[in-house]
Design the sequence.
């Protein structure tokens, strides 16, 4: 949400500044009083700290079913039994956390998506073996249900939905394999029929990648790593998947390479987010722009988009410490 100021009778987009000890500084947020109620405004292309998670962790998954809540579940924290089954609900409006029904098992390296049916899905992961089981979480009943298995175990994949009752699991690997290396799988899950269908492979096989759909009916798979478990190679590949034609097309590579997450907050752009960079991809111009870097070292462990059009980053790992930090990113309009 941009902030507008009136200068000489002309309204123009501006940014909030405050004077601190005689020096003017850009404020990351501003508050106004409307009818006795304080409401928060915000500057764009900024990261702001929010209430930390109850459970510090890395490798969790997060998704929102569109109810102004985000569910963060699974992950690992380095304490026996290593993986966790915590499921915690973040309320965007009140900036508070509530503990919900735990996952049926402890997982990390899984992916999450919501296909527009008010539910959240956990896809793949490891426990500690690679896992082909998947689960549906229903916030209305606060309960988990196991759904049909994927065709094979899948860890460190990306999951994305177009809001059409389908979820796409993209990339990843089966670390149980004799010579584990990333695959280029595209697996489509139909929520209504509870079935999986294998689709055309990505052009560049990767794991630990990000994937998102900016609302144009396409999916963009960005970043990640190629190579074996012993010799990974950071990738800056950016590939577009068209579910209507079941085809992949190479697009402009990202400015930086390596493991990342990705999200689209409803402004027609895709955001590739890693501990070292936030990068914005515009499918209309096939170009990238470098944006504000997340200010906490080792974040994010996972990300999700809120109903308010902002991106939320959860947890991570830095300096031998598992993080409970939460950061909120407001993109440009």
Sequence:
């Amino acid at each position: 949400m941009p902030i507008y100021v009136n200068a000489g009778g002309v309204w123009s987009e501006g940014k909030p500044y405050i004077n601190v000890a005689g020096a003017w500084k850009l404020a990351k947020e501003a508050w106004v009083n409307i009818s006795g109620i304080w409401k928060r405004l915000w500057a764009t292309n900024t990261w702001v700290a929010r209430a930390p998670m109850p459970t510090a962790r890395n490798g969790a998954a997060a998704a929102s079913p569109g109810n102004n809540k985000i569910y963060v579940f699974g992950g690992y924290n380095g304490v026996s039994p290593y993986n966790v089954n915590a499921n915690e609900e973040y309320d965007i409006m009140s900036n508070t956390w509530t503990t919900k029904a735990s996952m049926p098992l402890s997982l990390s390296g899984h992916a999450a998506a919501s296909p527009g049916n008010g539910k959240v899905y956990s896809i793949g992961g490891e426990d500690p073996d690679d896992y082909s089981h998947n689960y549906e979480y229903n916030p209305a009943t606060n309960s988990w249900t196991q759904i049909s298995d994927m065709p094979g175990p899948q860890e460190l994949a990306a999951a994305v939905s177009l809001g059409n009752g389908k979820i796409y699991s993209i990339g990843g690997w089966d670390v149980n394999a004799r010579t584990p290396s990333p695959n280029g799988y595209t697996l489509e899950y139909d929520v209504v029929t509870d079935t999986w269908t294998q689709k055309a492979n990505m052009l560049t096989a990767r794991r630990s990648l990000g994937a998102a759909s900016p609302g144009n009916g396409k999916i963009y798979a960005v970043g990640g790593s190629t190579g074996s478990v012993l010799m990974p190679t950071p990738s800056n590949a950016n590939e577009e998947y068209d579910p209507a034609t079941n085809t992949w097309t190479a697009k402009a590579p990202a400015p930086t390479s390596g493991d990342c997450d990705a999200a689209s907050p409803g402004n027609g752009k895709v955001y590739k987010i890693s501990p070292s960079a936030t990068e914005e991809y515009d499918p209309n111009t096939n170009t990238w722009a470098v944006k504000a870097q997340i200010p906490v070292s080792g974040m994010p462990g996972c990300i999700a988009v809120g109903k308010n059009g902002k991106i939320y980053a959860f947890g991570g790992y830095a300096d031998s410490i598992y993080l409970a930090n939460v950061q909120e990113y407001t993109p440009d309009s």
